[in-house]
Amino acid sequence: MNDDDRPLRISELYISSSDTLCGIPTDQRIETGWNDRPPLFVTKDNDQLMKGMIRHGIPPALRCAVWISSIIKACHAHMEFDYSEEYRTLGKARALDHAWNVVLKQTFTDPSELDGSIEEPNFGSSPTHLQYHPTVSTKGKKALALVLTVTQEVVGLDPPYAPLVPSLCALLLRAMSESYAFYCLREMALNSSWYFPVSRVEHTAWTKAFCDILGRLHPSTYQAMQECGALEDLDPIFKEVFLPLLKYEHVLRIMDIYTYEGGKVLFRFAVALVCLFKKDIKDSTSFLDSGSWWAGVKRYTHSRSFKFQVLVKKAYGYHGTLRKRVRFPRRHILARIIRMEEEKAMIQQQELAKANNYASTTVSPETVRPIGLVENKVATLAKPARYRAHLAAWLPATLRLS
């Protein structure tokens, strides 16, 4: 009997999704083309097929299994396929739960701390980021705070400025338990360049890189956003993962792709979204500020005319005009743009720090005392002409005639 003929063990089945954040029952139906056991797809599993299937949406019941295996595959690209495949199975669940209990004990040395309320750490995100989710249960809020606290302690984000992390954690908890969400966040944080920025400088570089790409691909959209100040307020994208803009089920669709392809997905969908919105509106000058611009984007994405699959096609299609089609920058080009913007932001930060340091150590000119025997008196010239004539009479002829 070969491996294909032997009966499948329970530990080899894929783990089902569960909503820890809101406690809403998950639809356990498996759509055609997907499997709840190896292989994941009815046809041969490969990278191109995986991308295509994910872009059409992962069944809710399989999101936990596919999300974590996608993250493991991206963070451990040098490992064999079976390494990431193992994280989809029930056999790995016990190991992840045990690891979660260990880090909980290490983080909260006093067990009584777990009985009370846990304060959610501040990663630089909006304190109201949970308002975009369905009704969050008390258990879900505590689970979110626990995962974020343990992640901050284990990964060592100091100072903890990673504004995407709380929103990502909440979305992960919509499909998995605390142990799985922590493991996903830990892997993403340790490979942050693939998924999200972990400092103010990196966050600034990401937003500036988006502006650079948008200005190159769609100059008119760039100008419209610049005039209303929307380019200075990219929080709905790079802090809240489109939650204030798109329907919730569409955000989960983007999360499907994001876990597999990384942070580049945010740039792709952000450029495509504002481009489609700019084409839909008649007059871009009616937006007075960034708030009105993003409110207009939300009205567009919640209208009947908006089709999410059109957004996906635009995000992975051509940009520019029919006469001059341009592809979205490849991953290494995007990484180079971010690196250049990061260097600029670092230089600006250093210059600002030097200026602040100089201003704090410089003594005011009014308080500077004269040096040595110089008296603190301001010399003045004799203004009347007759005084100057009398003084000149005492000068030698050579000086008097010069």
Q: Would you give an account of this structure?
A:
Helix 2 (63-75) packs parallel to helix 7. This protein folds into 2 domains: 10-195, no CATH class; 200-336, Ypt/Rab-GAP domain of gyp1p, domain 3 (Cyclin A, domain 1), CATH 1.10.472.80. Helices cover 53% and strands 1% of the residues. The chain is mainly alpha-helical and 402 residues long. It is globular, with a radius of gyration of 30 Å. It has a two-stranded antiparallel ribbon with strand order 1-2.
What is the secondary structure topology, with strand pairs?
Layout: H1 47-55, H2 63-75, H3 81-86, H4 93-107, H5 138-155, H6 164-173, H7 178-190, H8 192-195, H9 200-217, H10 219-228, H11 235-238, H12 248-261, H13 264-280, H14 290-301, H15 308-315, E1 319-320, E2 325-326, H16 331-361, H17 385-392, H18 397-400
Antiparallel strand pairs: 1-2
What labels would you give this structure?
Cyclin A, domain 1; mainly alpha; Rab-GAP-TBC_dom; 2 domains; two-stranded antiparallel ribbon; 402 residues; Rab-GAP TBC domain-containing protein; single chain; Rab_GAP_TBC_domain; GTPase activator activity
**Count of separate DSSP helical elements:** 18
Average pLDDT over all residues: 86
Number of domains in the coordinates? Answer: 2
Side-by-side strand order of the widest sheet: 1-2
Low-confidence stretches: 363-374
Largest sheet: 2 strands, antiparallel
User: What proportion strand?
Assistant: under 5%
